[in-house]
Amino acid sequence: MAIAYPHFIGSENASMDTGFPSLSLPTPLSPPVILTQDELKKIAAYKAVEFVESGMVLGLGTGSTAKHAVDRIGELLRQGTLKNIVGIPTSKKTHEQAVSLGIPLSDLNEHPVVDLAIDGADEVDPDLNLVKGRGGSLLREKMVEGACKKFVVIVDESKLVNYLGGSGLAMPVEIIPFCWKFTAKRLQDLFEDAGCSAELRIENGEPFVTDNGNYIVNLFFKRDIGDLKAASDAILRIAGVVEHGMFLDMATTVIVAGELGITVKNKH
Ligand SMILES: O=C[C@H](O)[C@H](O)[C@H](O)COP(=O)(O)O
């Protein structure tokens, strides 16, 4: 997909004390050019990496957007612009990428407090709640991003929704494989009022298996599920559920790259 690019870098709620530098609005850039969706992801990722400082413990996200951020961190380390970074990867895939880039790695056992995590998302609602995990990495992401002081989310504008589930695409739930149909049915029944259908994620004709050896059930909603906290609690009460892909009240900043430029949204 190609879209017209950015005439400015804008900021919403820039006066909020996020600990990040605020951006001025608007800042003229070069004349409009056409950028692909992947180029927009890269722009959001590079903007997020500006928040990285030497000596930080960094949560390294997973997915096509986060990949650009990890590449950029590796590049800045190689150049010597960044020093003494410790990365905590959120998936085996990101672990491999980080190793190939020479980024020093650790884990939450050794570094239980993470300074900053940068990751993509599948959906972002107006309160900066997220759906994540369409790449299957939601559990490790939630553990790492739940341990960080700052969580910067990077998306292109196609990820913005009015309410979670509003894209009509999957809201993933990680479950244990044992009697998965039973667990999937319980999840579907839980959201009957929202017209929910629950489908096991299949890849290459087989159930998709997460880095943790579990399955993913994708939930699709016809209507808004309403109270997200109540929905989260109800899902987690089902035996067999490991974690779900709603990341509520976790993002501190969302960087959106879109047709009109970059917008930085900070949590109230
Ligand atoms: O499990 C995958 C992660 O939650 C990703 O961060 C999310 O799916 C967004 O991925 P992408 O940047 O490829 O759209």
- Unreliable parts: 1-9, 13-27
Rg over CA atoms, rounded to whole Å, is 19 Å
Spatial sequence of strands, sheet with the most strands:
2-18-17-9-6-4-5
Give a count of the beta strands, DSSP E runs of length 2 or more.
18
Name the helicity range.
25-40%
Q: What portion of the residues fall into strands of 2 or more residues?
A: 25-35%
Q: What's the CATH class of the largest domain, please?
A: Alpha Beta
**Most strands sheet:** 7 strands, mixed
**Quick check: average pLDDT?**
91
Task: Indicate the structural class.
Answer: alpha/beta
What gross morphology would you assign? globular
Distance between the termini: 32 Å
Number of helices: 6
Bound molecules: ribose-5-phosphate
> What is the string of helix and strand elements?
EEEHEHEHEEEHEEHEEEEHEEEE
Indicate the CATH topology of the largest domain.
Rossmann fold
The CATH architecture of the largest domain:
3-Layer(aba) Sandwich
Give a description of the structure.
With 268 residues, the protein is of the alpha/beta class. The protein has 2 domains: 2-161 and 249-266, Rossmann fold; 171-244, 2-Layer Sandwich (Alpha-Beta Plaits), CATH 3.30.70. The chain contains 6 helices and 18 strands. Strands 2-18-17-9-6-4-5 form a 7-stranded mixed β-sheet. The protein has a 4-stranded antiparallel β-sheet with strand order 11-14-10-15, with helices on one face. A hairpin with a 2-residue loop joins β12 (202-203) and β13. The model is unreliable at 1-9 and 13-27 (pLDDT under 50). It binds ribose-5-phosphate (R5P). Ribose-5-phosphate is lined by residues 61-66, 119-122, 132-138, 141.
